Amino acid sequence: MTVDPRLLRESATFPREVLAEIHRAADEGLYYIRGFGTKRKLPTFDDLVFLGASLSRYPLEGYRERCDTSVTLGTRFASKPIELKIPITIAGMSFGALGAHAKEALGRAATAMGTSTTTGDGGMTEEERRSSKTLVYQYLPSRYGMNPDDLRRADAIEIVVGQGAKPGGGGMLLGMKITERVAGMRTLPVGIDQRSACRHPDWTGPDDLTIKIQELREITDWEKPIYVKIGATRPQYDVPLAVKAGADVIVLDGMQGGTAATQDVFIEHAGIPLLPAVRLAVEALQELDMHRKVQLIVSGGIRTGADVAKALAMGADAVSIGTAALVALGCNRPEYVADYHALGTEPGFCHHCHTGRCPVGVTTQIPELEARLRPEQGARRMQNFLTTMTLELQTLARACGKSHVLNLEPEDMVALTIEAAAMAGVPLAGTNWIPGRGGL
Amino acid sequence: MITVDLAAAPLRDLNRRLHSLPANTNERAWRITNPKGAHNIAVGLTQGIEVTIDGHVGYYCAGMNQRAHVTVNGECGWGIAENMMSGVVRVKGNASQAAGATGHGGLLVIEGDAGARCGISMKGIDIVVGGSVGHMSAFMAQAGHLVVSGDAGPALGDSIYEAVLYVQGRVASLGADCIEKEMTGAHQAALARLLEQAEITADATRFRRYGSARKLYHFHTDHADAY
């Protein structure tokens, strides 16, 4: 008997992907763990556009007039602030989640571009310290590989309170990625499914954080900038508390931020998008008269120079990229397609970082796969990507008449949707209406 | 003996002086007076010097210690010797929460009692407590030894990895995946050595040993009740 397609009506409440997930849960009895980041459609910087120059604004000549991109981070208390040539940094990603080649490639590219890279859960490797001129050392709840010698040889310290992909959750690294070297760095048995703590073991709340920051400053003789990284949930409260606790720099990670392995339910259903988070954070800093005094780095779904320009226009001092950096290295490239198929996926859909069987050698510890990403080739790609983003950023800034990218401002933008107007606090295009603030 | 009076000298100056000592320093004995509960005293030490603190200290005293021998003649706040790498830290009184948290090495001796989460996420440190420890001690403990001469509070060793726990007194309850294990002669000998190093008087044969059942090392639906 043939099926009449006119009689097939898919349920909006139970579409095929929901049915499939219920079937999977019924078979396995465990939440789905995966890598990458949120896949649902969210309000993004794509919903904002720059107005550019006109009769009332004067643009800069694209190839003749300078548009500076330098940024200084950690000017509040640190005796050795971080000087970056571009406001695009590399986000914290662990050795373990990434292979050593990927970490080295990111370090080389960042060094060539005059920006920073960041360690991750699991500590600092020699390769990344050697390849990264400016290296930010993450201080995480797990304290895996935490070593005061590494603290002292870092250029800045980032206390991780949360991350955008899983605010309130700890790290995960499944057994296939806990190799001998990774396990040794983390003092864990080889091959276990590693679950990291979600709270720091020796402090609770902002008053304790004040003392913890002071400890890290005392150990490093007040030289290093101290960053505090938060997942975007309540930035209007978290940012002032981090400032009060003594942070030099706030790192704000929106829900589009990536992960090596996290429960799908966490990735898709926790946190807020970066778009409203940036506005809330900037407003909180302005209210304290600390905007530009405590620098703000934002991350989570930054993909292009346009995203960077919009984040800076909203008041951020710099951005951080993670997933986009991995894509630049080769993530989801249509190569080694048979290996994507072996994972049950296709190039363009892959989120199998958690398996350690990355077809393009980025998120793997398997030597044969890792060999597919040569550090020098990855570094070249990454450097090209950073260069492109910077050129795009400068293009938009010049069009708005700015001689420095940090001179971009909310008034340079309008929103294409009511939601984006409300979240970003800029007018809906063609009106002066900002939802919640009046106007017509 | 060099004496630093914290009522007169800023803490930052003290820590800087201690950090600047070369490996072959002759200034090997330090006494710190009037700590008055200050936080972050003698943190980040790197040389094998002796530091004696006369009085009570606040959070993170001797944090991230390497090689130094630090003695606190008083009580201490949270995170004494947190993330210690080597050396010896001795507290003559009681310790607050998270004593020895995440420590990678060295010996922490608490002659009195320790509060909650003693040895949380410990990664190789040896901790010997003359008295009792609070709840959730050795939570997620990865490596090293926690010796408790007194009692242990609820949820001892919750989600423990490969750390070894010895308790002489009563254990209020064990945490997820923590079980009692056989106390062999080798364990008694190892424990006796630890007690001797710590200068804590106790009979190693009266202790019981606890460690990981290793059932939570891999995610499995049948273990969901444990979390």
Q: Can you lay out the helices and strands and say which pair or pack?
A:
The complex is a heterodimer of chains A (440) and B (227).
Chain A: H1 16-28, E1 33-36, E2 48-50, E3 71-73, E4 82-84, E5 88-90, H2 100-113, E6 116-118, H3 126-131, E7 134-139, H4 148-153, E8 156-160, E9 172-173, H5 180-186, E10 194-195, H6 205-219, E11 226-231, H7 235-245, E12 249-253, E13 259-263, H8 264-269, H9 274-287, E14 295-299, H10 305-313, E15 318-321, H11 323-329, H12 337-342, H13 367-370, H14 375-399, E16 413-415, H15 418-424
Helix pairs in contact in A: 2-14, 6-7, 7-9, 9-15, 10-14
Chain B: E1 2-5, H1 11-19, E2 29-33, E3 50-54, E4 69-73, E5 88-91, E6 107-110, E7 123-129, E8 143-148, E9 164-167, E10 178-181, H2 185-198, E11 208-212
Describe the structure.
The complex is a heterodimer of chains A (440) and B (227). Chain A has 440 residues and is of the alpha/beta class. Chain A has a single domain, classed as TIM Barrel. In chain A, strands 5-15-14-12-11-8-7-6 form an 8-stranded parallel β-sheet. A two-stranded antiparallel ribbon of chain A has the order 1-13. The mean pLDDT of chain A is 95. In chain A, 34% of the residues lie in helices and 14% in strands. Chain B is elongated and about 60 Å long. Chain B folds into 2 domains: 93 residues; 111 residues, no CATH class. In chain B, 54% of the residues are buried. Chain B is an alpha/beta fold. Chain B starts with a strand and ends in a 15-residue tail after the last strand. In chain B, strand 1, helix 1 and strand 2 form a beta-alpha-beta unit. The model of chain B has no long low-confidence stretch (mean pLDDT 96). In chain B, 10% of the residues lie in helices and 23% in strands. At the A-B interface, helix 4 and helix 6 of A face helix 1 of B.
